[in-house]
Amino acid sequence: MFRRRSVSLALAGVLTLSGALAFGMGSHPPEDEAAVIERIKPVAHVEVAGAAGTAAGAVGNRSGEELFKQVCVACHGTGPGAANVPNVPKVGDKAAWAPRIGVGLDMLVKSAKAGKNAMPPKGGSDATDEELARAIAYMANQSGANFKAPAAGEKIAGNERSGEQIAKAVCFKCHATGEKGAPKISDKAAWAQRGSKGLDALATSVIRGHGNMPARGGMADMTDTEVKNAIAYLFKEVGSEVK
Ligand code: HEC
Ligand code: HEC
Fold this sequence. Notes:
2 domains, Cytochrome Bc1 Complex, Chain D, domain 2
């Protein structure tokens, strides 16, 4: 099963990294490393089995609690099986979280994505930025924070697809060919006329749908910013611009 495999791969990454860390620091005798792995193992095992047995969200749609229980708990958890990795802020440890909460959720997502000292990138998982944000909010909100995590399907700011990506994925389908009567990219006059409405009004047209054009060009998970980026890109292709 794909899910089960991707989870155990992610955990293998964590174990390898904590092993490498123990050797790299030179201060941990090998028994310590084995003990850490021993302590991670039972938790990881139980949680993975639990996650696979429930209707947990697919990768990309996991809740903060789901990702935490699959991955982050191995180090950030407080249970007897959780590893005592140096400097790890445990869930509920307000003193350890306070300075981290202070930098804001966006920065914490960047930091967790890149990894930091004994924290492997993404905690060793295949989490998306949105899932990391949810798991961080899940942990930090039990430790003094009041973060609002992105809801399922919601994209976090700064993580938008470019206008070019959206246009190529969706908009060109009609606007390159004129399908369904769409104004073609090559028809500069048609776009100049539409452009006079202004970007905000055009974005509203695309978001709601307009004539034969379905709402958001038919891509329901497109954010409003992505819609605007795509419109601006279409106008650039036309050789015009819109404000
Ligand atoms: C292998 C152990 C390990 C796992 C698994 C792990 N972390 Fe961490 N994490 C750490 C350690 C250690 C730190 C402290 C790093 C430091 O400040 O030196 C940390 C710090 C953090 C921080 C604070 C970063 C900062 O800039 O101060 C965040 C946020 C975080 N982890 C999120 C997560 C999330 C989300 C997951 C699960 C997807 C996760 N961690 C899984 C070990 C782990
Ligand atoms: C299924 C075909 C189709 C797709 C896909 C599509 N469009 Fe359209 N679009 C149309 C049609 C048809 C019109 C003309 C509607 C009318 O004026 O009756 C239109 C009109 C527009 C307009 C002018 C709206 C107005 O108020 O005059 C803009 C701007 C636009 N599209 C942008 C986009 C963007 C951006 C995308 C991609 C996210 C996109 N379209 C995807 C068919 C499509």
